[in-house]
Amino acid sequence: MPWPVDNLRDSPPEFVYSSQVGDTKTINRDSCQPMTRTLASPFRVLPLARLAKGGRWRTEAMRSYGAPVLLWFTRGQGRITMNGKTSGYTAHNCVFIPAGTMHGFEMNNAVAGMIVVFPPGLEDDLDLPEDPVHLRLSDAEQHIELNRLIDAIQTELENGAATASDRALLSHAGLLSVWLERQMSDAEVELPREDATARLAAAFTALVEQDFHSSKTVRDYAQALGVTPTHLSRVCNKACGRPASAILADRVHYEARRLLTETHLPVKDIAAALGFASPAYFTRAFTQHTGRTPSQFRRGA
Q1: Is the domain covering 5-190 a CATH 1.10.260.40 domain?
Q2: Who has greater pLDDT, 218 or 21?
Q3: Choosing a second label site near 8 at 20 to 30 A (CA), which of 64, 113, 120, 258?
Q4: HEC states along 214-277?
């Protein structure tokens, strides 16, 4: 039986969401009475290097997470793509990525930093941004304050008492959200340009994220967007340096590699779940994209 489509949404490596959830008291702003908040998954704070564990495809291939994340680059540089738009990042860049946002970034041995994963479903409670945010922080005080906020969450995760730990984490996360909002008001913020190219590239990546597990081709996506496949590829090349076909293939084969390494699903079921007409066609496409057959990739993971 094919893997259910609802389970194809990725979560970062080692962020596999626990089946145990905690009940947390939060405040209803209208009534000012405490209410119970059930976390859908735990908070996570991990070094960026852990994200690339198992291969650079873990960070560089196009994918999305089912939870909001904050990336804090403390060393190194590279390129990051969000919603079909590519830009450079350097040390002391802070990037917030909402849940469901297709993205990927270059990761090498010179890059260091942290990733904070928020439990999904808390976006409104914490007033997290609805769109991706790229902050370039030049002030040392900003670096110190962000490090302290992240350290506070990590310390609570590692050493917090069982009593009210989730409530403490929500409080720390709220302060981090306030800090992010203030930086967006005061600091240099890089937002996607709202031109026709950026809008079309973002719309394409959003559709791919929604339907990558189907058998849709670039022609199908272009038709849904009211443009020709040639124009769509030209726009994607301009926005992120890759044609539409490469973005689509990248997303599909990221999911294939994830399922091969993180599940025991048979190859034929993975092929069916990702919209391939047959296991043989999936194997040919996967081998062309990665240089290894699905079985070889699974054994080498």
Answers
A1: no
A2: 218
A3: 113
A4: CCCCHHHHHHHHCCCHHHHHHHHHHHHCCCHHHHHHHHHHHHHHHHHHHCCCCHHHHHHHCCCC
